[in-house]
Amino acid sequence: MYRLNNSARDYLLKAARSTIEAYLRSGARPVPDPPAARELLQKRGAFVTLYLRGRLRGCVGYVWPLTPLYRAVPECAVSAAVEDARFRPLSLKELPDTEIELSALSGLEEAGGVADVLVGTHGLLVSQGDRRGLLLPKVAVEGGWTAEQFLEQTCLKAGLSRQAWKNGATVERFTATVFREV
User: Which end of the chain, N or C, is surrounded by fewer C-beta atoms within 10 Å?
Assistant: First the structure.
């Protein structure tokens, strides 16, 4: 499982909040300076989840390691605040009541089926053709799902049949280090 120390976690949480605030004030996305911590310079997938007064308010990220973590988190934070199509853009007035949760992802590895999926540890990416569905590890726990139900729900999120994971869809798993503001 991919891990981050407390200093790295604090850095990322502060970067996420300050970048959202800067964007809401000016419309510009500031680019953070590279940190000294090597673990933040690694390319990692990341998701930022926002909660407004305890309710989901946005969640955006990417599973592939496209950019260093110190840049991925602020990018995803702004996107979660203003680009998640399920919600209207976050306002500056709402920001103080918004809690930020971050998920720093491990790399992807192939998962063959139920025996390769540990609920609460693994997140899933199911793909077939141009369809993809991703669910973070906590989603299965929150749903009270078995590994098979988790696979089925990830297939449904991709717009595939429940059984697509048995019928040729590619199933990949990952772990996530999840932490939030206190």
Answer: C
Q: Which of 178, 182, 179, 174 is nearest to 122 (CA)?
A: 174
> Parallel, antiparallel, or unpaired for β 122-128 and 98-105?
unpaired
Cα 42 to chain centroid, rounded:
16
Contact call for residues 72 and 62 (beta carbons, < 8 A) = yes
DSSP 68: B
Sorted by where each starts, the structural domains of the chain and their CATH numbers stand as 6-105 (3.30.700.20), 109-175 (3.30.1490.150)
What tokens were used for 156? Answer: 């449904």
Task: Spell out the per-residue pLDDT of the chain, length 182, in tens.
Answer: 567 999 999 999 999 999 999 999 999 998 888 898 899 999 999 999 999 999 999 999 999 999 999 999 999 999 999 999 999 999 999 999 999 999 999 999 999 899 999 999 999 999 999 999 999 999 999 999 999 999 999 999 999 999 999 999 999 999 999 999 98
> Which residue, among 73, 90, 102, 84, has the nearest Cα to 25 in the 3D structure?
90
Contact 175, 1 (CB under 8 A): yes
Q: Which sign, positive or negative, has the C-alpha torsion 80, 84, 89, 90?
A: negative
* 117 half-sphere exposure, CB direction, 13 A CA radius: 28
